Description:
Layout: H1 3-34, H2 41-59, H3 62-83, H4 93-115, E1 120-121, E2 129-132, E3 135-138, H5 139-161, H6 163-173, H7 175-180, H8 185-207, E4 212-213, H9 217-220, H10 222-232, H11 237-257, H12 261-276
Antiparallel strand pairs: 1-4, 2-3
Helix pairs in contact: 1-5, 1-6, 1-8, 1-10, 1-11, 2-3, 2-4, 2-8, 3-8, 5-6, 6-8, 10-11, 10-12, 11-12
Amino acid sequence: MDSQLLLSGVIFGLSMASVYFLMSIGLSLCFGLMRIISLDQLLYYAVGAYLTYTVSTASGNVWLGVLAGVAISGTLALLVERFVFRRIYERELTFSMITSFGILIGGVGVIKAIWGVVPRPVRMPTSDLINILGTEVPLYRLMVVAIAGLVYLGIWVFLNKTIIGKAIRAGIEDVEHVEGLGINVSRLFTITFVIAGAMSGLAGGLHAPLIMVDPNMGLEVLAFVFMVVIIGGLGSIKGTLISSLIVGQVVSIGSLIYAPLAMMAPFAIMLLILLVKPTGLYGSTMVKK
């Protein structure tokens, strides 16, 4: 394989891994703390993409559109948590999954009613190329990777260095113990859900210039997001990052070697990892129960 083609594939894989990470972090956080499967995160991903399209078209500034997508997605997640999930936290895990999938499908219908069914293009914030080892690489893809890296660092600092973050980490391990200490667990749930929704909206906004924005875009990446979360281990932020890198590179490099590998290989890797470690790479003790 040509070295320039390989390097381009690696950069493409890193940018895809960054988007997968931002999409999957919400699912991982929500399951880790609240023990719910929040498939509606994929709705916020689509909303973030469409807000980026709308605002960037009106203002000519893609970054302003991304910020709008993050803000609206976080607000939408707040409303969904307040009026839907707060009523079903005590229900079975499958109930939350079915409910969140219903929200996702309903949200797709609303998107079609507002924006229509025709895919929409979002212009690239920059068309500059960076020369890396003799290979011209799109600057924007490197920017996406850098933003995802900063997000991971920010989440790590938040969870490990702030009082609220430490309470969320403790809640992931034993939510009843945290509640027994007098901490408002309901508020932790809301904060976590808003962060998750905002990150999903950020994923949609950053991904929009790389694809055609489509009402079903959340459904189209559903399988890959599930793979990332399952491989990394439900509730593990580090595992989500590592598995995103694995899936992104497998999809990218696999498509260069043999196109069908791009769809088949990630599933094979997921099955192999689950055979060795059923909880995923970094699954917590509580997830094993």
